[in-house]
## 1
Amino acid sequence: MLTVVKNQMRVCALSVKYNIMREMVNKVTFLTNVGFMVLNNATFLVQWMILLRMRGDVGGYTMREIMLLWGFMAASFGLSHILFARAFSLSDLIIKGKLDSFLVQPKNVLVSVLTSATDSSAIGDFLYGTALVCACKPGVGGFFLFLLLVVTGTVIFTAFAVLLGSLSFWFVRMDMLQNQIVMGIVSFGTYPDGIFKGASRFFLYFIIPVGMAVWHPVHLMVSFDAGMFFTVAGYACVLLALAVAVFYRGLRRYASGNLMVARL
Amino acid sequence: MRKYVVIYKSVLLENLQYAANVAMGFFGYFVFIFIFTMLWGYMYRTPGELIAGYTKEQMIWYVMMTEMLFFGSDAASVAGEVAGDIRGGNIAYLMNKPYHYTLYILAKYTGEWSIRLPMYAVLAAVIGMVMVGPLPEFPLAALPAMALCVALALTINAVFKLCISLFSFWIEDATPFQWLYNKLIVVLGILFPVEIFPQGLQPLLKLTPIYTVCYGPAKLIVDFSSEKFAEILAAQGIYLAAGCGLMFLIYGKGVKKLYVNGG
């Protein structure tokens, strides 16, 4: 059992390594993608400088919390797109019947699918997020907590994308909806939770998991609470289990598109 | 000119068939408006308060209008198509056709937004009326003037995005430059009106495309005046002429750099 897991992990690591090497074939394009993504994210600091100039805080967040918020959002979203980019286009694979080449591999289907692509610009997201949190001087312990919470955030984003994408086994046009909802998470996740009230707040914590992936981690960095930490970790595990179950349940309904694909 | 009208009409009819697909994008628009309604609801603490000369209702309507232009035009498609044509080599076929490639793209793009924008305009009006309430003293008679400024704004934006995409003749992927241009438009024009920035920066911002692409038309819708209309229209005329000149120049230089690798 342990050997199987070890082998699977090795294949995943190799897959991600070769994805990144493929992206780096054209070094100028690769570096431009990474560098401009950092700049692209940094432009939003202007927005917060303006808003915080009007009021001392927005939804209870000062500049430090805003930087942590953007740090978690960018790093978690970035890591999920570096390691599991295909989760975010899973719908497209299912609708177009492109899963065949993964089904014949002697490894776990879902893991093979998820690790089959890397978004090079996401490296810029990850670096930007990590740099922002470092700029908040979290200390050594705080930095390890950040890394741990980025892992839970990555699991939550990936699992949610897999869950939405897997619905394509039952419904058509889920590709557009998956994209819209994922972008919706990014939009909500870059604003403080303090501005949302009532039902929308519950919705954003439990149904669309922005709260668990980004807002709770920010609160944990400001003031650690073991109960909140285990809630986030538990939520990530439950969501992951649910996503895996829904994917394999849907896979039974999968119909090939007779598409000839060579995976190199 | 007639051939571009024919291209426009054919794309318009084609896009009419897929109007339902456009509606799938409404979710993203709604999310943005919801967030900004909450955000400005938090920032305005007393009723009737003014921030940078805008009431809460005007500020939310401003964001709704700029986001409507952003979502309703989907200029990303024009950028993506041009970059794809150049990278994929399709440009070699398109440049020999009896039209100018850049004007062909602009005619196609206009056909696309002619369906998308009215749909988003209706959505924006409905959401605005429900979530914020009607705009006080909205001049219905000025609608044609507003529509003209909106059409020019979308065309200017497309011309600048096209210019950036044409850099694909020299670099393999111009997408990162598109991100940066988009973000500057979003942060400096879509999210806030120019008046919210420090006094020293405002004249500088009015010289950028932001003034003609999003601030100008949105400001006219939220707070119309005929002097403002004349000023924005003049600025748009200058920007359109300069943008088109730049576009033809880059395209002219770019096609000389074109290498066809067969296929």
## 2
Amino acid sequence: MSDSLPVDRRRFLKVLGVAGAGAAAASACGIGPEPTERLIPYLIQPEDQIPGTATYYATTCRECAAGCGVRVRVREGRAVKLEGNPDSPINRGRLCARGQAALQGLYNPDRVAHPMVRNARGVFEDIDWDGAIQRVAAKVREAQGKGIVFLSGTEQSSFGDLVDEWMKQVGGRRMSYEPFAFEALRAGNRMAFGTASVPAYDFGNAKYILSFGADFLDTWLSPVEFQNGFSRAHAFDAGRPASMSKFVYVGPRLSLTGMNADEWIAARPGTEGLLALALAQVIVARHLARLPADASRLSSLLAGYAPRAVAATIGIDEDVIVRLAREFAISGGGLAVAGGMATQGPNGAEIAAAVNILNYAAGAVGTLVKFGADLAIGSTHTFGDLTALMADMAAGKVALLFVHGTNPAYSVPGAFQQALGKVGYKVSFSSYMDETTAACDLILPDHHSLEQWGDSRPRAGVTALQQPVVQPVFDTRPTGDVILKLSGKTGTFEDYLQGKWRAKHATNFDQYWMDSLAKGGIYTEAPTRAVRLAPSLSRISFAAPAASGGQDQDVIVFPHPILHDGRGANKPWLQELPDPVSKIAWHSWVEVHPDTAAKWGLATGDFILLKSSFGAQKFPAWITRSVRPDVLAVPTGQGHTAYGRYAKDRSANAFELLGAQANDYGGRNFGVRASATKTGEHRKIVTTEGGPRELGLGTTEVLPLARAKALHPGDHPFHFEETPEYAKEAVEWWGERQHEKASIGNYRGEHPRWGLAIDLSKCTGCGACVTACYAENNIATVGEELMQRGRELSWMRLERYWRTDEHGNPQGAVNEPMLCQQCGNAPCEPVCPVYAAYHTPDGLNGQVYNRCVGTRYCSNNCPYKVRYFNWYNYAERGGQYEAFPEPLSMLLNPDVTVREKGVMEKCTFCVQRIRGAQNQARLENRNVRDGDIVTACAQTCPSEAIVFGDLNDRNSRVSELAGNPRGYHVLAGLNTKPAITYLARVVAQETPSHG
Amino acid sequence: MVFILALPPVVANGQQAQPASSRYKAPVLSASDTSRLKGPRQPIFFRHDIHAGQDQIPCMYCHYSASVSSEPGIPSLQTCIGCHQLIGGGPPSHQAEIKKVRDAWRERKPPEWIRIHALPGFVRFPHMRHIKALGTQACATCHGDVQQMAQVSQVSTLRMGWCVRCHIKNNVTRDCSVCHY
């Protein structure tokens, strides 16, 4: 074979699997002559692909800096699904919604398809690659000595090394920028321990978790890893001696992380550090934990922070502080984390330092907080460095700027744009027309991370490899290749990467390389480095900021758990996935406490104009008790002025409210003072909360820990009279008829009964399952307008119910994934006039799309409201509500029919995966084994809350869980006999509210 | 450049081959003969009757994934050239068609076959399950006696009733969700 490169062996000439492509494009139920299809064979059969069979390639997710390993399912040369790589120690086979949606970045219809240059009229026009590279080379020569800067995202990688070498060669420098770079945490670590690195956190072995605003389940450092660890520690498992770790959240609003807490302490913003010190003071003064050797220093340091002295400032009772300290220390494995909303103010670093002291006092440092296994994000440049760069740019000291993998013009609007205007020549390597790229002079679009080679070192000890899994979709080029060419070196970036790896492992390299590729990287455990309290610690003032008066409001700008810093906004899956807390999709909002709303006469959906000293934006109000009355909270992520059809001109950009000045520790203040004025405008917010599909309380069950611990096998704490006395006779009669029917044809004999068990104690409501379901089942995104009318098609949805105290204040939430219950006695089936909804022998509520005529009787009769109707032809080319514009249609799963207008659709437990596993088992002359079939939701769930299997198999995991005393069926009283067993949420302790 | 030069097993060592006397002899066709043949005219006049009938090449030598995958697999051009690097054909009409294969290989431009057997997008037909159940000789059950077709045409309706009749006859599943999902 002439082509020896693995990527070329996979060369995909055109769609061989016309069957697959045909299925995706035209699944019309038309009968009659089909249009002539062409079958185009391969020139050379790729060795590692069989048509109709998926091939999996290990690579690395680059959607955030966490560096999760992924396996990409490739069918006939198209990447159709991402799944976590079980070999990766970071995400252990799990993936979040943002990771799932990387595919929509790859096949995004608004990618920059070829190099472009700004012409004399200021408009972008096409340019060929050679011309573009020559132009850059000329500009580099011109700019030498006048300031060359390469601005990248977090790049702890061979690519970053290459850029560094190139910049050294041309006399420039590389800078990295992340809008959320955890400066406060790094500065706090330097204050407390004299090291600015970001350690690894072991949530899995924590016995008590105290978060000071650190949203470790959504945006803090490494969310999938932490969520997996958190659910191991926090889930209720009767088989384990210390049943569950209590989780207490301290912060001004309940985030996705906060709403999973057992207790919410709404401390006054900025006083979180005082609380941490008060806790440490109690622990040290009362010797609640085995104290470190230098504890004597601690006690003098903490002397001024006795609970009595600080309780009033923090705004919570003294005895609550003492109780928390006691619980934290006595657990023998307390872990405190700081970050996010608590460290967004000017004293963020001090708060992080204070939490470090608490960890140190309780003995968590070195065991649960591991310096040594440092995270890459800790080496990113700070916001202070970016402001210095902006000053240089504004002063004309930057003649040539390269931008790669970051979009500062969106997250620092205004200031960065202005500074950019003073730069001589700006080159973007982005493959998306984001705000920064739109302001550049030349665009050399990079390959998507799924199209190119690379590696990254997300944390010490882990080197994750990245390999191309598909042929490039557009005429893009790997930036590594371009840089090698510009720096006059031969070879491709692949050669460069291999060279780097070969230098580390020369013997038997080819085998080593192939093994590493198959595993997705090299995973080792970095040795833990001991840290001691820094000598200068005693000089730090932990005083809380004075309560500010005046008319202005405290406004918190927080990272959107789904869209993050805005990078997810061009992916329709992420836009349509409701925010886990507010359940709002497709637009931004401001969180207002009902007391504040009453004062201002606000209703949900009323716009308020927030005006800080830096900018003004208006947001529709979402009135909620999950935010402190004296705080308004706004998510980032929306309000793009560019970045493609799904992101552009959508709602408002919260970054506009923030200043472009770095604070004392080099971070950015995400909390601002702003005036709030009602504008008089109103919009209907796009929310799934309280919609007609939600069933309200009574579908979720919560048990206090003591009660859950007392349960024995065979107990039934949730007693539902499934069949009331008066109906017994009728139901028995019905049962007999059913039994008769069940002995006809297909229904005779031994069959599995597929079922799910969902542990609400593990579910955090993050939404990864929802996006995985969209990806696996070709679910169309309907867009803002139709979603507002309740026409979304999310087969799986997350219903969030607040747990409240006696005053109605939320103490956290219970999240309930709601999907088709595959009822044994399904209300949807008998009402279908055309037998499109029917019962399969293996216990599913089948839905035959080609038989459905769209009467919607089934949906009317479904008590769970999990059937979804196609009001439009979302797959229609150029249609009004087209969900898969080219090339987004490339990610459609060829194993699943694309539904058309007038068809009812719903979850069928990933029946294509069931049939696939059955086919495979039959080929291997065996039965399907427990664990062979994993539904998309169960596969991706970072908390491992969902288990799928055969309820008729007594040894399966799911039937064991279905018999768990915590298990219950939703709306069991309707006698629908669902196949899904929910395990009740267990709450560590019933506690009154504070703050 | 390395070609896979291994000949099909039958050609190479005569396995499974019937005695020469009973073997099907594919006719040499004139232009007027070919115009009367059923089915669409393919870009290369590929004779299934010569390859599968006369030369007894097993179906799955070319349709290599039919027994392991839902898709039967269309032979890559490399498979064609594996033999036709050496085999140039007898009659001039055959030689002309084989030249098209060699040209396509040289130009690295595979032929665009016209699809004959197509199912709607909402139907799944796992080839491997059917071959597992019915054996490797079962292709003709649905595709007809391709071994004697100079030009392949569709002989079965491929309608659901036709599928279900066979499923009833063999007493196997008639569950909708086995094929429709």
## 3
Amino acid sequence: MTIADQVTGSTIAGTAEARPAGTKPRAAAPAITLPAIGERELRLDLFRGLALWLIFIDHLPPSLLTWFTIRNYGFSDATEIFIFISGYTAAFVYGRAMLESGVVIATARILRRVWQIYVAHVFLFTIFLAEISYVATRFENPLYTEEMGIMDFLKQPDVTIVQALLLRFRPVNMDVLPLYIVLMLALPLILWSMKWRPDVTLGLSVLLYAVTWEYDLYLSAYPNGFWAFNPFAWQLLFVFGAWCALGGARRMSRILSSRVTMWLAIAYLVASFYVTLTWYVPQLSQFMPKLIEQWMYPINKTDLDVLRFTHFLALAALTVRFLPRDWPGLKSPWLRPLILCGQHSLEIFCLGVFLAFAGHFILAEVSGGAAMHALISLSGVLIMWGVAWVISWYKRVADKSGAKTKNAVGNADLAGGG
Amino acid sequence: MKAKVLLSLILLCVAAPVARAGDAAPTAPPAPPSCELPAYLLTSESPLPKVAAAVKAGKPLEILVIGSRSTTIPSSENSSYPARMEAILKEKLPPPEVVHVSVEIQSKKTAEETASTFVKLMEAKTPTLVIWQTGTVDAIRASDPDEFRSAVTEGVAALQNAGADVVLMNLQYSPRTETMISAQPFLDNMRVVAQEHGVPLFDRFAIMRQWNDQGQFDLFSPSRGPELAKQVHDCLGRALAQFVFDAARLEPAQQQN
């Protein structure tokens, strides 16, 4: 099929009305299309902000608030949202750079972004080291001598720290940034290929995903095991996000607006909600056909199970349908905190991981209990909001006088992530 | 496919004890209040036929606990849960019954490394019941959960082939290291193996979390003294004795006096 598209102004996910194919055919249209400059897609920011909050809450020990996170209502969770939107925004910003300034410049800018994410990861690792060292010296309960074996890596920092710098040693909850680094490293190739043939690129991505499942590709980790998020599988969401950003969403708009899609999505979400329900209300599981259970389990997060991916697609389809791009609520002050957080995703993501560490620490050192737990979750979210506000203040006011030309075309925040 | 059954089995496991909760026989001696647990944590659908047969025939009950460092309390062996379980079982069973518990510690060994020693171990000792406590070292080293599951499967098979009943025991609940050790995959996989092989699983993790959440023990305590460890092991020993007793469907000793 031909993938030549007309250059149109706005082509954000599913909102742009599909133009009749007959109007003004252009012979030499580029293979990809980009949205007009200056239009910020607030829905992306909103949902990325939401994903950041949910990731933070999921990283804390389980509490009442945990029940509000989407992983309890279906197969996929905030990670899918996060990676998809990151792919979308990254393609959006750097795709434009590639069209306007060429492959070399775009690649250079992507690599700078990769470096920022890498530094952020190392910074988080340092905080983790500080926490674990503190616990190692203070906590000598004889009940847990064995568990303190986790501190053994402190005995050979030469190996551990080097492995951490190589992204092979990752403490619990520090798996997303390494995945993001690898995906961003592949972005120049993805964009370059998308510029040529977006659909072929998406096809190759699906192929890599299938090969990963068939031949069990993985990246090994230190001291053993493998990456908790397999980049060979998770690239599918990232590339799909990029594909949507570069015109795919617009071309899909007819599918997205069809009633059949809507009902399929609703049916799938309801079914997966039911399955999730059986995890918490075991009595329900007797109504689950054994064959389906055997086929379905385990729902593999490491390799981005098809069920999870489909669940995300269904969620996204309904969101795009029922939350139009120009929904006035997006401008409402109530959603402002989420949108702000989504706009500075790398910083806020790192902050969230740090706050989760700190939250654990306070729960352990000061006091536990539901009230403390709720307080920590709430203040965490408020801190994320506050910091996001400060960062945007820097961008708006403090940095104005200095770098005038920097970030003239697109800005790193929009492509952020992490 | 192996693990496809994972969650469904977890559900079954959770559902089954709930259904059975009613018939957990209250037995002597009364546990101290701090050890209290809901009945579903102390019951299992899977039986222990060899233990039952040995007790019925009046043969001595040889129990082997294969564990790691969390099986013992440093410098207080007699307060560790195997010793406490032995004492409680002796009280529970009719007087002529001989109970002997031995302990095999394989510290810093993964399930795979431990399981590879089982054939030799079982030649040397011929226990009626093996309580295999594992998972912690694998969780610390972040082993591949699939490899962990096959190692536990092989270990259980080796123990069963050697003619023993098997009880699996999972990790300790350790809130202080929650951000550093990811226990969940190992808990899930042990549950699957237990279910697939009809082996009772003593859910040490859920039990200790129950105690912590209800405030019976403060497992966050950084105290260096052995007191907390002793109390927890005492309760674990009681719970384990009750669990074995119930899984083997044993009759409590008559309260003669």
